[in-house]
Design brief:
The protein is α/β, with parallel strands linked by helices. The protein has one domain (5-182): Rossmann fold, CATH 3.40.50.450. The chain contains seven helices and seven strands; from the N terminus they run βαβαββαβαβααβα. The chain has helices at 18-33, 46-57, 89-98, 110-125, 142-153, 159-162, 171-179, and strands at 5-9, 37-40, 62-67, 82-86, 102-105, 132-135, 165-168. The chain has a seven-stranded parallel β-sheet, sandwiched between helices. Helix 1 (18-33) packs parallel to helix 2.
């Protein structure tokens, strides 16, 4: 599938391993060179700032979405092609989804998990089946892989749903996997598992 706009969820901090920022910059450069628009939280600090700067430096398009109350805390990027200010985190999540056709979680905290988890649920309950990637820098998401597999083996997550979460260690590999993503054929409401 063609990747036109990817929402990248990532931390407003850089984390304590320089690999996180290195891979964020690499992902931003690849997105710019492959003409994939970045949709992100609009910050100029942390991994958000790294990927935003990388996209812009390499001639790509960057769109930020930020709630008014975080405008001071996250230090908004001043050189984006578009910056949408919204009233709540709920509006932020919805607008980022509306502006994107694929999603990537970089290393991050609660916010990153919240945002990518909502999109994964939409691939089950909604009409669209989005490719949802996890950039597993330095094994950051290994526990997530283990948890999803545990959910599946324990009978809480069907194998078809599990396959919606795509993991790769390198940005180029992740983009390639997402581009080749074929949505599984299922209907949550006809599967007989709605109450499981």
């Amino acid at each position: 599938m063609k990747l036109n706009s990817i929402a990248v969820y990532c931390g407003s901090m850089k984390g304590n391993n320089p690999k996180y920022a290195e891979k964020a910059a690499e992902l931003g450069e690849l997105m710019a060179k492959q003409d994939i628009r970045l949709v992100y939280g609009g910050g100029s600090v942390g991994l958000m700032g790294v990927i935003g700067n990388a996209v812009l430096t390499h001639g790509g398009q960057a769109v930020g979405v930020a709630p008014h109350f975080l405008s001071q805390r996250e230090v908004l990027h001043q050189n984006l092609h578009e910056l949408h200010m919204v009233d709540s985190m709920f509006e932020r999540r919805n607008l980022m989804i509306d502006l994107s056709d694929a999603f990537i979680a970089m290393p991050g905290g609660y916010g990153t998990l919240d945002e990518i988890s909502e999109v994964l649920m939409l691939t089950i309950l909604g009409d669209k089946k989005y490719p949802c990637g996890f950039l597993n820098v330095n094994g950051f998401y290994d526990p997530m892989i283990e948890m999803l597999d545990k959910m599946m083996h324990a009978g809480f997550l069907q194998a078809a749903y599990r396959s919606n979460a795509i993991f790769a260690d390198e940005p180029a590999d992740l983009l390639a996997l997402m581009r080749n993503f074929t949505p599984p054929q299922y209907d949550k409401f006809k599967s007989g598992d709605i109450h499981k």
